[in-house]
Specification:
Largest sheet of chain A: none
Shape of chain B: elongated
CATH class of the largest domain in chain B: Alpha Beta
Helix content of chain A: over 70%
Oligomer: heterodimer
Number of strands of chain A: 0
CATH topology of the largest domain in chain B: D-Maltodextrin-Binding Protein, domain 2
Number of domains of chain A: 1
Number of strands of chain B: 6
Structural class of chain B: alpha/beta
Radius of gyration of chain A: 16 Å
Number of helices of chain B: 7
Largest interface: A-B, 44 and 44 residues
Chain lengths: 86, 201
Amino acid sequence: MTLVLIAMIGALLIPMVEALQDEDIWQRMLAFASIATKTSVMILVIAVLQDDWMIGVVGVLILSVGNAALMLLAHIIKRVDDAMEG
Amino acid sequence: MADSPIMSSYAYAIMLLLPLSAAMVIFQSNPYQALVMRGILGAIAALIYAMMGGGDVALTEALVGTMLAITLYVVAVRSSLVMRLGVLEGEGAKNNLQWQPMLDYLRAMLKRYQLRLELVPYSDTQSLHQALAAKEVHGVCLMDRTGPNAEEVAPRILVRVRRLAEIFATELPEAIADAKLYRDDALVTLPHSPTLTEEHS
């Protein structure tokens, strides 16, 4: 089980490198979405590993509500981009 | 702490990601990109808090620290990093060769300072001047005809903010537009930098 978690940390590094390298803001938003989902799934894996229901509930909440920040951010950035071009 | 089940070997690997993402936030100059990085930092911080057993702290970090703070900041950045330029209605529709290149140049110039150009249309010159005096806009763009029947127009930009006037004086060539600092009592002409004047003369 710990090996699964270590593999997930390795997978977490991929969008981190992507966010560091690519200058395009939408690529960075994609990396943010990837990291936000991966970290909440990792919280769920840790909850199962430690058999802790409290952390499990927190993981489910972050997974379901956490992407709302991404939606709000994407909406405003899109409007700023439209204003800059038009 | 080191031999407890919470602080396993993978815990140190996850914790190394926190300073890495924090450095990414610090070395980012564009405010919008920095806010996306702040979201990444918040997600990793929430993971570490949950891993250490602080479920309530992790939930607060994800909801308040990431979602609410980023949304409020991006709204604040969007409304503050903008230059409002008052223009006459239908100015771009006229047969005016200098209009679009001037706007493109202004947008590119302000983008280097992370600023956004917003055009505010007004119906006549009088309301344009009133808007500048009432601080509704940061600057106005006037199109003066060089002669009574002349085809050519000379764009003139009056800026109310001193810092913007300094940027315009050093980076906007006179061939594109003539920039002046607006004051309540009189107009102050800022000297153009010699290098740019030489380039475009």
